[in-house]
Specification:
Elements lengths: L23 H15 L25 H17 L9 E3 L2 H20 L5 E2 L8 E2 L7 H4 L3 H7 L1 H28 L3 H13 L1 H7 L3 H4 L4 H8 L7 H18 L1 H21 L1 H35 L34 H6 L11 H14 L4 H16 L4 E4 L2 E6 L23 H27 L27 H19 L9 E3 L5 H4 L12 E5 L9 H8 L12 E5 L2 E6 L5 H12 L7 H14 L1 E6 L5 H12 L3 E3 L2 E5 L1 H4 L1
Parallel strand pairs: 7-10
Antiparallel strand pairs: 1-6, 2-3, 4-5, 8-9, 10-12, 11-12
Helix pairs in contact: 2-6, 2-7, 3-5, 3-6, 3-20, 5-6, 6-7, 6-10, 7-17, 10-11, 11-12, 11-13, 12-13, 12-16, 15-17, 15-18, 16-17, 17-18
Amino acid sequence: MAAETTGPVGATPAAEPAGGSAAPAERAGRVAAPAERAGGGVAPAERVPTAGAAPVRFRPPVWTPDALVVAGYLGLAVLLTVGQWGRPGRLFHQAGDQILFEWMLARAARAVVDLENPLHSSALNAPDGVNLMANTSVLALGVPLTPVTLLFGSQAAFLVAVVGCLAGTATAWYALLRRRLVDSRTAAAVGGLFCGFAPGMVAQAGAHLHMAAQFLVPVILAVVFRPDPGRVWRRGLALGLLVTYQVFLGEEVLVFLVLAAGVFALAYAAADRAAARRLAPALLGRIAVGAAVSVPLLAYPLWFQFFGPGHYRGMPFHAYGYQLDAASFTASARQTLLGDDYLPGLLAPNPTEENSFFGPGLLVLAMVIVIWLWRRPLVRALAVCGVLFALLSLGEQIRLDGSPTGVPGPYRLVAGLPLLDLAVPARFPLVCVPVLGILLALSLDRVHAARTASARDAGPAVRAPAPPPAPGDGDPRPTPAPGHSGTSRLPVRLLWGGAVAAALLPLLPTPIRTVPVWPVPAFVAEGGWRAYVPAGRTLVPVPPVTGAGVSPAMLWSARTGLAFPTPGGYFIGPRGTGDPAARWGAPDRPTSLLLRRVAETGEVPAVTDADRRRAVEDLRHWRAAVVVQGGLHHGDPVRRTVDALLGPGRDVAGARVWDVRPLVD
């Protein structure tokens, strides 16, 4: 990438007139000034403008076009989240994931205000707590958003984070493209738009903040692949701090970034060995300094993640279930103009992982660009990187149109490597997003540069005839190649711009879909529970979810600012005290399994005395003081089951409440 850079646009000062003299009009004004003063007139600088004087035109600041591009990104991001602003009873379609991140943002704000350990919390999964460093705690978003969370609540903080991640990622790529790779502002704007709002980015933003927060990726790449070999120590320090911050944004994105940067560097070195030898010492020096800075800063957090309380090993799911279908690369994602619900459901594991739905037009366009610009080492390296990560997303066995082909996928070669065993194969195409965005920007900039060169070669509309060339010297003026005149460039520019538009228009994102959610009961939201829950005791929701299901406890906790501790929750933790294998949520308890089954099926079981004894044991384990049921689809069967287990409850402020302190004490 370094050898392809063009340098900051506009860095060269404007040329002065020949010989450094003033313009002819300025010289004429200075010559006429003495005669005017002798005749009683005024100097040009003192002359009052007459009615016929040309008006002074307002010129906007030079940064206005860039500000308009960024404003466009922000506007689009707000438009995509419009279904939730001011609507507390709606969540994005992957409701469980949004509840998780709302809780994480509320927890970060609580840690800032109360100066608590941000890496662990006992407000969830009581009494054991949750290792937040081993989960997607997004502290690098939650801490800066603390004022928003405290003033407007966890839902507003989540929406601000989504808007910031999408628009921030697009803006960061726009800045990198504009400063390093292209001269055309339009080309950079289109590339940034795709990098920030590709179907995979929008799909992730509706649920996974840690995957959508990629605004530091182009910044890190700009530092690592900087063409200037100087200031190794300063840039290495910046790299170390950026990597440290990215860890608290999302470690999975950092893993993908390191892998992609390594593949890109090797491919570029193979394409341009001279540039690689020239730039390698400074690049390796920056990486070494960055590692020396980040390792001490991250030593304790990473130790806590892998060895602290609540740590786990592996993942609670098999990677085979989170791979993409080969046909997904030419399909349309749900959150696009041409998307539907049926086909993507066959080609991706869930709506959040529709990362490869680029459509046939964009893929054909990408192949044309690679062939067209193949001589550039940058393009060759990008092509290698994009193809490799696209293949890795197909998993251990390639599937086509929903059916296994029996062909082994390349992912099986790296599935057991450290860190890669924690990555989801379906997310590898997120590396292809900036690859395609950069290729689009390079192609548009190439057309723009050709048009500019043609206009320069054509010269002004009226030109004085040049003297004939001296005998034997030939005509020194450049002769446009056939078909490359200024009049023939316009159709080429329009045709290519139309092709890019035709490929991207079907991928335009639509507002992220929302689903209804049961509101937080007034008993919980207004603090009625405080009369029941003393210090050191918990509020148990019904059902006390401990798996990967939607957890009312987490939603209530997030929307009330973690006002009370609660058992269960949606997170990743160990299976048990002596078994660090990963699982969703806390180890199951008999009562939680019983109530969850009733909530899912609506069937009331025959409750025995043994069930009642186990319920009391579970409540004691959870240190429960009160059991609360809010809105449920099978609310009446669940209420009757809890009545049979604990005795009759009573309705208080929109909730069914069971005071279990006499049973537990």
